[in-house]
Amino acid sequence: MLDDLINERLKKLANFQKAGHSPYAAESKRTHFAQDIRLGQNNVFVSGRMMGLRVQGGVFFIDVFDATGKIQAVIKKENISDFDLFKNNLDIGDFVEVSGDIFETKKGEISVDAKSLRLLAKGLRPLPDQWSGLEDTETRLRKRYLDLLFHPEVRDIFQKKPIFWDACRAYLRENGFLEVETSVLESIPGGADAEPFITHHNALNMDFYLRISLELPLKKILVGNFEKIFEIGRVFRNEGIDKEHLQDYNQCEFYWAYQDYQGMMKFVEEMYKDIIEKTAGSLTTSYNEDSINWGRKWEVLDYYHLFEKYADLNLEKSDKDDLYQKAADLNLKPEKNLGRGRLIDLLYKKLVRPNIIQPSFLINPPVDIEPLAKRLNDDKNKVARFQVVACGTELGKGFSENNDPIDQRKRFEEQMKLREEGDREAQRLDEDFLEAMEYGMPPSAGFGFSERLFAVLMNRPVRETVIFPLMKQKEK
After folding, report:
1. Whole-number pLDDT of residue 381
2. Which structural domains are found in the chain, ordered by start?
3. pTM surpassing 0.90?
């Protein structure tokens, strides 16, 4: 059936060509957008996709949609040469240009009284509602251009997304942070627990990794005496796909010399509220069935206390075997080679985090799960880290940065042992970063968050807030 519809449109295309009309114009004379049309305007040119066609004898009506909305055009036989050609060969989905004077129809609709009509681009495939619909999520994501065409709420998401990042960038700049750019290619991937993508650099004849984080290069810049810096850029993680995870996405990270995690928490709360209000238009949003109040004072929650409450384990007394057995009893299928930190994180994500719905700070986790954070002065088994948690998920993470190169080397070495035991996401020892630290790095705090925050504000899975998410190739 689809082939028949396409062949019919190809015949109509040929009819335009035979009549001397170019079916694919190089330009348009548009003078007005649909939202700008007013009574009393004359000789206006409008252009857009034709989404409605109604024929009534010697007149037909078309609905022309552009980026701002819809305008009706009235096509009369006495005004348009080749009237029958257009009436019989235009299809829904074609791009057209109409010029004429603005008037009000008997039904009260502001319209263009067409004096000229031109085909700008002939659509060869019928739009989905004419043959198969566009309801399946996978189809919408594969053919996002059609999703955008038919669903105004989807277009709204991608109009808000630049507002989100602009608000982030503006807030940091207004507070004295300098924006920098670092390389996407790294010889050693660092700054996060994630498996990287590998690519080959022909000119250098070397394999490189696509960065999994922005952290280590930015902290090197602190060594160079910049005190407040940030970057918004793409990171790549070769991990699973779900409603919260993508393989490539935008992330913001910023670092502040002579600041600690407590001061950074205050700054982040104020920053988030500013970004959320500018993006969503309110400090109250919806997520699933919950109303999320971002405007309240965020609660500060202790990691150990919540872990004991929801996982029924005392982390100060639980060793690796206890954690493994708990995960196995819950049928979480833990791998034998997981270290204590990875087991803690597995249980936390399954048992603890889903219970935190309103925006909160979760602080002071075990040192096992954060090899780059500063240890607490009064408890060396914990680190000065905080997470922004809301809607049952992590929406940002920050900590007082470890600036002790000796301690940092030991912790990297512990991570390397985990890699040797089979943990592919354990961090790697980075000699270049350690060398920079050995020149001296000021006490500082850092924070990072990804576009997952935007997805939560939109109440959508994260891949639905990416205009063209990476999809598995469809079998032909």
Report:
1. 95
2. 2-133 (2.40.50.140), 147-465 (3.30.930.10)
3. yes
